[in-house]
Design goal:
The protein is mostly beta strands and 121 residues long. 0% of the residues lie in helices and 53% in strands. Strands 2, 4, 5, 6, 9, 10 and 11 form a seven-stranded mixed beta sheet that branches. It has a four-stranded antiparallel beta sheet with strand order 1-3-8-7, with no helix packed on it. The relative contact order is 0.31.
Length: 121
């Protein structure tokens, strides 16, 4: 039973930084890809970043590329999202995900409860 818990959100001024953490329990994430999504007010949930099981490969949405950096520490069973140069449009609830194969042709995506990030002066 995989459980994901995000933390590190809060209120920050434009141009500031936050580091989000996602702690996993129940299942080790070292064999799975993980990602971050966000949902801003009035908008659909969107993918922000994903990282391979080893951490060797990362991908970012154009909206955050160059400002956000995703990483993972498999020894701690945690993943992170370093957010720099934050903008008001980054205000959203941020979710951590993990993709776990269900069978040979299907993958289940697990979600955390989310953490609120508010960028405002």
């Amino acid at each position: 039973q995989l459980k994901l818990v995000e933390s590190g959100g809060g209120l920050v001024q434009p141009g500031g930084s936050l580091r989000l953490s996602c702690a996993a329990s129940g299942v080790a994430l070292d064999h799975y890809g993980v990602g971050w999504f966000r949902q801003a007010p009035g908008k659909e949930r969107e993918p922000i970043s994903c990282i391979s099981s080893s951490g060797a490969s990362t991908n970012y949405a154009d909206s955050v590329k160059g400002r956000f950096t995703m990483s993972r520490d498999n020894a701690k069973n945690e993943v992170y999202l370093q957010m720099n140069s934050l903008k008001p449009e980054d205000t959203a609830v941020y979710y951590c995900t993990a993709d776990v194969p269900y069978n040979s042709i299907a993958t289940r995506r697990f979600w955390g409860q989310g953490t609120q990030v508010t960028v405002s002066s």
